[in-house]
Amino acid sequence: MRQIHFPLIKVWGLRLIGVFVLLAAIFWVSAHLFVPGLVQKTVAQYGNQIGYDIAYHDLSLSPLRLRIEIDGLHLAKNGGNKLLEFKKLVVSLKWTKLALGELGLDEIVLDEPKLLVEKRAPKGKSTQNALWNWQELMQAIEKNLPPTDPKENKKPLKISVDELLVHKASLRLIDASSNLK
Length: 181
What we know:
33% of the residues lie in helices and 31% in strands. It contains three helices and eleven strands.
């Protein structure tokens, strides 16, 4: 029996595989080399816009696993104390929940989180009118939000977290008006 050869199909098949491998390599290189630097620059610009310092040491993205690892993240008011600091923050998303239009978090790992909740009055002002540092942050973020369309029908976002792991957490609570430290 005679064997039939399809050299044209073989050539195009190899070309398609080559293009797919090339696109996968470009995607991987951009996700590991270019995107972390772009994200760091964008986050720093937004922090300056709202009057806060937002920075981190290293960002690792795994787009196919929907996993983000951030080392050395900190959030501080410009010229002030750090509100939030992590040695490492890991967030893993779920494909299935995203496909349904929900925000499904498979895992959140907080390694050595440090949280500061502080209420200090500005110099020369009453301590009764002082805001907590997190209230100030929310006000700064709200000022920079784009205006919303009142006609737009808002549907609540469903958020689920399967696993939350916290290692060596610390909380500092300071209220100058009641001498709470």
